[in-house]
Each structure stands twice: as structure tokens, then as C-alpha cells.
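This follows on from our talk about sequence and fold. Can you supply me with one protein entry, sequence and fold together? Could you add the entry underneath, on a fresh line?
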Amino acid sequence: MKKGSRKFLFVGNHPCLDFVNTQMIVKGEPTDTLESFEDLVSWLVQAKLLTASQAAIVKGRLSNEGVASLLEQAKTLRATFRVAAERVSAGRSIPDSAIDTINQFLAQRPGYQELVRTKGGFKRRFHSLATPPTGLLTPLAEAASDLLTSGHLSLIKKCANASCILFFYDTTKNHTRSWCSMQMCGNRMKVAAHYRRSRGKASL
């Protein structure tokens, strides 16, 4: 596969959960889909947190050491998000260390709020003064802080398949979603449950 050409999975209904989901179980094996810095940039573009032109600027400004450092920072942030998602989905509190890590990334993005005219009125938009490499991961930290402050934490869920490690934000009408996706786990688990029921009846 060409570097940076990977197609990523977006089933989390929120950027920070989709970022957590760049680690998954494939054919029973733990798999990291962020194998390279190009994968990281590609994910950010596909998640609409970075434009293609910004991606080109970032790649042009970073040394090999800078690339390695940013990829490591991204994985540190992802690990922090996973801890937070695991704790919240289990009804437990998020550790202060996770909050501190998110705040460290938020502090890397100087800027200001600006008023923007929209079709229906106005909205506030953050105008960043950070150079692209410096603020590359900050939108992810902002997404996490938005989810933790504005979202309903009870709707952050782990896939009900015990063999799956994906998370999602349940936006269904009655908040009854159980699977990362029907195609990946839902149908498989339903078939397995049906098979178990059929075997149970046959043994009677």
C-alpha cells in the first residue's frame, strides 16, 4: 500500500473516538493503522481536521526528527484518549493525568475567537496563530475537550463485542447502539447468538 493512501475507518461519530479507533483488532491481532507520519497526516485530512494544502505545508516544514516526534506525540495523545474512553464507558472517572495531557496539547495553539457570518446568522470560530506543525494535533485535543464538556458522557460506548476495541458516541434516537458497526461486529454477533440458540434447542 502506498504511504498515506490508507483508507481509515470512521464509525465513532466523533473525531477523538475515531482517532482512538486507529487501533483495532484485525483477524484476531492488534493492529495500528498509524504506521507512519504519512498515515497520521492522511487520517487528519480524511477526518477533515487538516486540509490538503495544510498537509503539504506540514510535510515541507518538518525534519525527519520532527516527523518522528509528532508521530510519537500523536500516539501519546491517542493513548490518553483511549484511557479516557475506557474509563467513561465503564462509568469511571477520567484520571487527572489524562486531563493534563490534553491541556498540554491545547496550550500549543495560540489564537483568538472571531465572529463569522453564516447563512442563518453568526457563529464563533477559533482563529489559530500557530504554525501548522506546532498546532497539528491541537484540533484533536479540542475535539476531546468539546466532547468532555458538551457531550453526554453516558453515550460514549465500547463495542459490545468483547473481541473488539472500538469506541463510538451513540447518536441513535433511543441510544441503544451496541456495535461499532453492523457490518463489522453487529451481524457477526447476531449470527453467533442465533447459532448458540439453535444448538441449545437441538440438545433438548
